[in-house]
Amino acid sequence: MIQQVTRGIKISVKTSFQGTFLKNYQIHFAFTYEITIKNQSNDSVQLNSRYWKIKDALNNNIIVKGEGVVGKKPVLKPGESHTYTSGCQLTSPFGAMSGYYDMINFTSTRKFKVDIPSFKLSAPFALN
After folding, report:
1. Distance in angstroms (rounded) separating the CA atoms of residues 73 and 48
2. Backbone angles phi, psi at 74, to 5 degrees
3. What is the pLDDT of residues 38-61, one digit of tens each?
4. Residue 27 falls within a domain, yes or no?
5. Exposure check for the chain: N or C terminus, fewer CB within 10 A?
6. Nearest to 8 by CA among 33, 38, 30, 40
7. Strand partners for 118
8. 37 forms bridges with which residues in the sheet?
9. CA–CA distance from 9 to each of 12, 33, 59, 104, 106 (Å)?
10. Which residues, by range, are in coiled-coil regions (predicted)?
11. What are phi and psi of 8, to 5 degrees?
12. pLDDT, tens digit, for every residue of 86-110?
């Protein structure tokens, strides 16, 4: 499990390989990732949007931006956490993801970024 804390917000990531499939005559590798966002600060916060940079071993880069996470904009009081699962597809058996969440602190009304630690995606059969 990969973990990182930014401004009292702890991000934990677990990844899983889901398998391969053929799409448009090209093999794709499917991965899921489970993210837990835990508010370790003294203020209530809300996640507003996300930014992802997804890179595979063939040096293909995909940028994903959007509101919330899986259709939600969770509000976290001090000590609360939110866990969600999502996924991505790569055209190689290895890759990595990194990014950040745009959040707002309800006490100060200030917006801030929470870094998502870089994590690796790898198909177990491709490892030595």
Report:
1. 6
2. -65, 140
3. 999 999 999 999 999 999 988 889
4. yes
5. C
6. 40
7. none
8. 11, 82
9. 10, 18, 30, 12, 14
10. none
11. 85, 5
12. 999 999 999 999 999 999 999 999 9
Q: Strand pairing partners for 23?
A: 26
Nearest partner of 118 among 38, 23, 33, judged by Cα = 33
- Single pTM value for the model: 0.92
The answer to the question of residue 126 being in a domain is no
b/e for 62-91, b at 16 or more Cβ within 10 A? eeeeeeebeeeebebeeeeebebeeebbbe
Q: Name every residue whose Cβ is closer than 8 Å to that of residue 51 and which is 6 or more positions away in sequence.
A: 63, 64, 65, 99, 100, 101, 102
Domain that residue 91 falls in = 2-119
Amino acid at 89: Q
Domain count, the chain: 1
> What are the residues facing 49 on neighbouring strands?
67, 102
Determine, yes or no, domain membership for 127: no
Q: Is residue 75 part of a domain?
A: yes
